[in-house]
Design brief:
- About 40% of the residues lie in helices and about 20% in strands.
- By secondary structure, the chain is of the alpha/beta class.
- It folds into 2 domains: about 1-205, Alpha-Beta Complex (inorganic pyrophosphatase (n-terminal core)), CATH 3.90.1640; about 210-335, Diaminopimelate Epimerase, Chain A, domain 1 (Roll).
- The strands form 2 sheets. Strands 3-2-1-4-5-6 form a 6-stranded parallel sheet, sandwiched between helices.
- A hairpin with a 3-residue loop joins strand 11 (about 300-305) and strand 12 (about 305-310).
- Helix 2 (about 30-45) packs parallel to helix 5 (about 140-150), helix 2 (about 30-45) runs antiparallel to helix 6 and helix 5 (about 140-150) runs antiparallel to helix 6.
- The radius of gyration is 20 Å and the shape is globular.
- Bound molecules: manganese (II) ion.
């Protein structure tokens, strides 16, 4: 508890130089929790900068504070300086420094007081204080709770509420996944009360497709979907050429894996995308099928029980062959775990 008191006295105390960072290729929860938190800490009188390890999808640009975000890949020098001279560093929506690439080493080395706010499994011990709960659907839910616990709920304005709403909405798959708890609805109700326009946020995130992206989805569905009924699995394998042909941008492949999971009788879905350095993999599952364990064991990854990711350094075809083989071998374990 002393820890929490120390933390509170810093937040309520004199101006601090604060850096907030979040994981590689931030999603709505990563960016929403970072910018929601930034707006709060700004109001508490601190000097706050959000640094992302990479770029992120354009459908998040509407968030308040977006124009102040520093992309480490574009400004490595400036980012390094900010991290090295920060009094406090917040790490949101990730709990292992390898998720922030080269920034991880800089954060590790920095003398700043470190705060980790996250809801992923197996956090690594790099922070001075951890606001961590795997039962939370989203990091945005934890940021909301933290602000309330600080006694500062009245500081949450419409823009902050919309950042937090976005993270909770997307991390619950639009309030559909099993992590959509009573608390999620209670928090979201409060955010609406504080001004969030849920319908607007939904449109900004889900209904801002480019024609290229829609055509790409159509192509992937008709040409790149493999269904394995005997294994209750389905996956997409997307080549580098496919991405080029449809002028794919950051975020364009996001959510495609859910089409595979939406097939009747399918319990595991995957998306394999051929990137520059590796095959990037997204896994989704239903009910008790824990894809995070599977991803950690075989694909250098991890995440949540029903939504996780991984990597492979084999070719695309070798990777999907291996995936199919592992599914066949591990079928009993995968589908019968509790
Ligand atoms: Mn999250």
């Amino acid at each position: 508890m002393q820890q929490l008191e120390d933390f509170k006295s810093k937040i309520n105390g004199p101006k601090q130089k604060i850096v907030i960072t979040t994981h590689h290729k931030p999603d709505a929860d990563a960016l929403g929790s970072s910018l929601g938190l930034k707006a709060y800490l700004d109001k508490k009188g601190h000097k706050v900068t959000v640094i992302t390890p990479s770029d992120y999808p354009a459908f998040l640009y509407w968030m308040k504070g977006n124009d102040t975000v520093i992309n480490y890949e574009e400004y490595p020098q400036k980012s390094a300086e900010l991290v090295a001279t920060a009094d406090m560093i917040f790490a949101t929506d990730f709990s292992c420094l390898s998720r922030i690439n080269d920034l991880g080493e800089l954060v590790q080395r920095s003398k700043a007081y470190k705060v980790n706010i996250d809801h992923h499994q197996d956090p690594k011990d790099f922070a001075d204080i951890r606001v961590w709960d795997t039962a939370a659907a989203a990091t945005c839910e934890l940021v909301y709770q933290l602000i309330v616990d600080m006694g500062d709920k009245d500081l949450i304005d419409k823009e902050m509420a919309e950042c937090l709403y976005a993270g909770i909405m997307t991390d619950t798959g639009g309030f559909r996944h099993p992590n959509t708890t009573k608390n999620v609805h209670l928090v979201v109700a409060e955010l609406i009360d504080l001004g969030a326009d849920g319908s607007r946020v939904t449109r900004m995130i889900y209904d801002t497709n480019s024609v290229n992206r829609l055509k790409f989805i159509g192509f992937a569905l008709s040409e790149r979907l493999v269904i394995l009924p005997h294994l209750q699995a389905a996956y997409f394998a997307i080549t580098k050429e496919d991405l080029e042909k449809y002028h794919s941008k950051t975020g364009d492949t996001e959510g495609i894996v859910n089409y595979a999971l939406s097939l009747e009788g399918i319990k595991i879905a995957a998306l394999f995308t051929e990137r520059e350095d590796a095959i990037k993999i997204s896994f989704r599952s239903v009910e008790d099928v824990a894809v995070n364990k599977f991803a950690a064991e075989f694909f250098d990854g991890g995440g949540h029980k029903n939504a996780s990711g991984g990597k492979s350094y084999l070719g695309l075809k070798e990777t999907t062959d291996r995936f199919e083989q592992l599914l066949a071998e591990k079928k009993e374990e995968l589908y019968n775990q509790k």
